[in-house]
Amino acid sequence: MSSALVPTMSGVSTPVSSSSTLAASLSEPSSPKARKEIFDNQNSISPHTIPGTTVTGPVAYTIEALAAQYSSSVVVFDLAEQAGFGSHVSQWTEGSDVKVIRTQTRAGAGLGLAGRLSEGTSEDGARATKGTITAFTTPEGLAQMIPVLSAIPAPSTSARLVIQVAAVTPTPTLELTPTLAPAARALASLGSDFTVLISSTAQEAADFAAISYSLSGHVIHVFDHAGATRETGKSTFPEVISSISTLAELPNFSHFTYTGSSDAEVALVLLNGPLAALARLLANYAPGLGVISVRALSPWSPEALRRALPESVKKVHVVEEVPNGSGAGPLFGDVLTSELSGVSVRGHRIPSKRSEVFHNSVNAFAEFVAEVTSVPSGLTQGAKYKSLAFLSTPASASLAHLPQVTAHTFLTQGGPIAARLLSSYDAFASSQGAVISRLVLTPSNDEHLSKAPVLSIASLEQQVDCLTIVDPTLLASHDTFDLVKNGAPVLVLASGGAPEVASRLPRAAIESINARNIRVYTFDVDKAAAEIGTRDSDSSLLQTALAHLVILRIYLGATATPAAVQTLSARIYGEVVAGVSNVTACDAAWAGLAGVEIPSLEPLAEDAAPPKKLTSFNFNALSLDDPAYDGRPTPVVPTLGSWAEAAKRLIFREAFSPAAPTLTEDAHVTDPALRPDLTEERFLVTCTVNKRLTPLTYDRNVFHLEFDTAGTGLKYAIGEALGVHGWNDETEVLEFCEWYGADPKSVITLPVPGYSSQTHSRTVFHALQQQIDLFGRPPKSFYGALADHAENRDEAMALRFIAAPEGSATFKKLSEGDTVTFADVLRQFPSARPSLSELATIIGDIKPRHYSIASAQSAVGDRVDLLVVTVDWVTPSGSPRYGQCTRYLAGLKAGQKVTVSIKPSVMKLPPDDMQPIIMAGLGTGAAPFRAFIQHRALLVSQGKPAGPLIYYFGSRHRSQEYLYGEELEAYIADGVITHAGLAFSRDTKKKVYIQHKMREDSEMLGKMLAGPDKGVFYLCGPTWPVPDVYAALIDSLVQFGGKTQEEAAQYLEDLKEEERYVLEVY
Prior knowledge:
CATH superfamily of the largest domain: Thiamin diphosphate (ThDP)-binding fold, Pyr/PP domains
Helix content: 25-40%
Shape: elongated
Protein name: assimilatory sulfite reductase (NADPH)
CATH architecture of the largest domain: 3-Layer(aba) Sandwich
Region (Disordered): 1-34
Distance between the termini: 40 Å
Largest sheet: 8 strands, mixed
Pathway: Sulfur metabolism; hydrogen sulfide biosynthesis; hydrogen sulfide from sulfite (NADPH route): step 1/1
Structural class: alpha/beta
Domain FAD-binding FR-type: 680-911
Number of helices: 42
Organism: Thanatephorus cucumeris (strain AG1-IB / isolate 7/3/14) (Lettuce bottom rot fungus)
């Protein structure tokens, strides 16, 4: 199965998916302020927000802001804080007279509140009771207050209590639910001094919070914190009316709301919580059903209930959530005694376990409603809405705000689309947890859907219309495709391209994709941002913007065109997108989206192990790690410590070691202890041969290396490169430690790349020798960072000058002329002495050096060969310099272990063994061609047909630098090499280079490249001969390929696209 590059969302004709609708919502270009806010994820809500202002932050912030503004004391119970409620009030009250008290929830938890309300003798007590005391808790916390609530003193003008109850409760399976069941007993036992308000939507929660501070009595306000108050959506910041004291004085306030048919004969009565929101959705699609939502439980108003209930209603079913099936709820008795003439009243107690099912599935609740009311559900008619989801982990921090940026497209514009975003967390989904962000789009003119909480809409259908997988590591372990509807598009933001994404898919995922016709796309956001980014662009913002544009393209579906995406982008971002032009960004987003070819599956063998079962996602946390979690992991910085740090990692491996990846049985698993500072898949190989190929008297040390790979799992393809993770010179490291005053035996703890909280410990000597790039070349930023540590004013100014644009000439002289290292700069500016921990941060790590592999694994087996030349030079001051890795490799002894990794290359064999291969190598550029020749020799030895093999090699002297000369002569004699053009430039008076040898063979080259055999040309080595080699090929195509100069040039360009003209130059 393949995914065509016309991404579509099912139901494109609905009011929330057409391009015209989106264009309408963005009919006016964003203002500069609005464009800035796209990436400004700071919450705009505060105690100073002007009432009536439209805000887009979570309403929970609004409730905290009102508490900070209208309370004398705020008591934050631990259960509320664990639910992510109450974390901002301390910041907003800092420097004010408002006291914030954090306390634990336990039996009699309200005693402290009662004491504060009844105090009056001490100065502190007088200050605390002068005004309103606010408490933040949850339904479980409110239940703990039952014995105390009846003893709360009556409200007075100087002391009253407001309890803001965030309705979110953990279940026995650790999932979170918005059930009101734990609070049932507490609400039923309250006295007449308490006003009880219950909200279910975001705007209701904001309004009722303001009402809480408008009234003169005690107030309990219960709101849906599992969903509604955590949503990012439009709401109006409410006004506190100080001129009223009771609900009766509030204009336009209703104790009850009625939803459904005006002639309904059956009605449900529920507390105005999330279950009531589900009931209202059912009533909209079930003729004959009515729903009464109780917004004010106390004071109870029978008159208001009778007014709200249509005269046609004959049966009322009171539905209450209770901790268990036998407990009493607060509602049935009040309804029963409200003197509803001619109406039969029946109660239904929903125990916690069953209510959890109802909150997760509206279909299950619909079946219950149909059973008790005999009114069939109308959900099959379908509701008009679209839902998008984003799946990420803290490891994908650079794209942490992609859901908010996408939601911003709809939230900041007027138009026919109402949007709300809600993030849920699964703390156990990976080593760091996972975030599922749902963006729900509904028609603005749909009075019911546009106000319904996201969780209520999501329960209509758990699967979404479009899924973006921000962290592709979740593909291997979790049932990500179960989250989307049949035929829906899934976007995977991953590096490596479509084949790499396809290779990551486990069998169960492929079965789901193929069975349900899911369309999978990928976009390499890192690559796209790196290609178009500038020095002035913020890479994280640019990555987010590019991913956003790709999502817009998928949202537009079949109507998407490059022009349409550019127009929308201009209206959202303006002419500049995160530091690059709008046209450039849109072109990159359009070109980078690729369909993923899904492989077909062979049937499992009878004795095969069953495929791994993928894990489902659960909603079990309101944040990850911290109540103020914003999607970005707390960075781990290097720290200097003692041997105890290393000992802890040995004793408690489970806590400190990265989790080993789950791979197939025959796959290689990297030992986490093998260079945990490296992100590549790494192998530990053994040096068996280190042989110099050039004479000792020759000024170039070219040497041949062989490594034993047996038992390591290392596999490589012809033409690939070996990444060598070299070490710094031991003597130089010890000399630096002595000069810097560092103890080489002390222990330093360093972060592990790819793991936000993982660290590893090693000695300072090993860190400087194997990881920290102490003898590498410093960038400009290093001089600026070092200036902050310089104690000498002149040195600090000099460092800042080099780091500034004005110091470019000085920096160039130091970098390219003197080729200074980090260690040299530190010696040059001795007053700048960062600690070793800081030094590790500002220097960075040693990068692997990659060398073309000079062997074919099919021919040599468990071995990998390299061809290396030592890099050394002398600076203008006369100091010798050495290439860090070639120096390390040149000093290897047989038996020594080396850490390596594999890197793909453009040097690949042609698909057909009969295609002619033309190779041109200069010096150590011969390395990959040795592998090519070995492979063709193996084919010949096996009696298999093989096409012509042409080899051009160039160096200075045949007697000194004819690399692998004896091997080559044998291959020529055996006919493996069809033709050889050897150019030794210093052996003749007139210098002869490989391009001269190629011109001698123009007829052969022209026919091989332009003829039906489809010859392939490869060049490996330094860049300087490329123009002459190119000219030689052009001439051969003109003379013997029947082409003009222009046609020949275009032909070579076409060969590049076909991977038949391949250059690997350096």
